[in-house]
Amino acid sequence: MKVATFNANSIRARLPVILGWLKREAPDILFLQETKVQDVDFPVDSVKAAGYHAVFRGQKSYNGVAVLSKSPLTDVETSLPVEDVDEARFISGRAGDIHVINVYVPQGFEPGSDKFRFKLAWLDHLLRHIADYYDPSSPLLTAGDLNVAFTEMDLFDPEGFRGKVGFHPDEQALLRRFFDWGLVDIFRKHVTEGDEYTFWDYRIPNGFKRNMGWRIDYILATAPLAERSRSAWIDKKARAMPKPSDHTFLVAEFE
DNA sequence: ATGGTCGGCAACCGA
Fold first, then answer.
1. Predicted pLDDT of residue A29
2. How far is the CA of A10 from the C1' of B8 (A)?
3. Which of A36, A123, A170, A218 could form a disulfide with A10 if both were Cys (CB 3.0 to 4.6 A apart)?
């Protein structure tokens, strides 16, 4: 089984990249974030023509998540309200006996802001949701853009960004709780060296070329699945295609 | 070389 996650930064702007990648890599499941499209405008026909089922929840302009899969997901939920705010950031479902969750965690603006507090509350709520509804001894995949670099390995300039949004101890303490609960960072299980990132800020000139990036996208899995993981990698080729997203694909293969 | 991010969506906001 092959799964991947990709922050598309508009599924409509990224449709050629996504369709090309599906054709080349043929994942069983692709988790998408920042689709930036209302459900009525979601490109269902293109996805179907590529041989994939789609579940999605979008909103105008911002956020939006989707799960594309060769086999249809069952038991789909598309809402996880936090502090009465129900943005399009969450999809859960089941693929056979594997439970899957796709998330787009709030970016958080800057520490001290309301957006930052909301980000922490959102992560806390997600963790409680997972702990309430799932068991670490059963197969669960949680993938998406967590908008947090966990360690210095996950960021090109840890000293420069220490305490800033995306590399703040309060964010990292929350991620730690996901790991403590029983979710394994599948990329880090397999790749423990090299400046490997999944996101390069468009605003840094030649940031991709200079590899000034962040590894803020994750594929997390509980033990029974993590034991079956054989490899994980970041597909930088997709970032070299015309009109790339500011993120690229993170991929994992399971037995 | 006298500039320098994207995408959405219609003026800026968010990342």
1. 98
2. 9
3. A36
